[in-house]
Amino acid sequence: MDFDKELDARGLACPLPIVKTKKALAGMGQGQVLKIVATDTGSVSDMKAFADATGHELLASETQGKEFVFFLKN
């Protein structure tokens, strides 16, 4: 999937992946896509809840080994 910016949230525990995602999205234009790579298992449910609460579109969520990859549209 095409994306405009990538956020490396590997090694960060809750709530830091969400905090850093929020900050990254704030610096992006409307319609742009942010790719987030995290290792915190809680980020799977957190990212969906964040998208639902903020109106950002969660385009995709997948597991790659021990990493979780998300694509959020601003």
Overall average pLDDT: 96
Question: Secondary-structure element order, as H and E?
Answer: EHEHEE
Biggest sheet statistics: 4 strands, mixed
Number of strands: 4
Helix and strand content put the structural class at alpha+beta
The CATH homologous superfamily name equals TusA-like domain
Low-confidence segments, given as residue ranges, are none
Radius of gyration: 11 Å
Question: Going across the major beta sheet, what is the strand order?
Answer: 1-2-4-3
Oligomeric state as shown: single chain
Name the helicity range.
25-40%
What characteristic shape results from the CA principal axes?
Answer: globular
Classify the beta-strand content into a percent band: 35-45%
At the first level of CATH, what is the class?
Alpha Beta
CATH architecture classification name: 2-Layer Sandwich
The rounded distance between the terminal residues' Cα atoms is 15 Å
Q: Which fold does the CATH topology refer to? A: Translation Initiation Factor IF3
Count up the helices.
2
- Whole-number tally of structural domains: 1
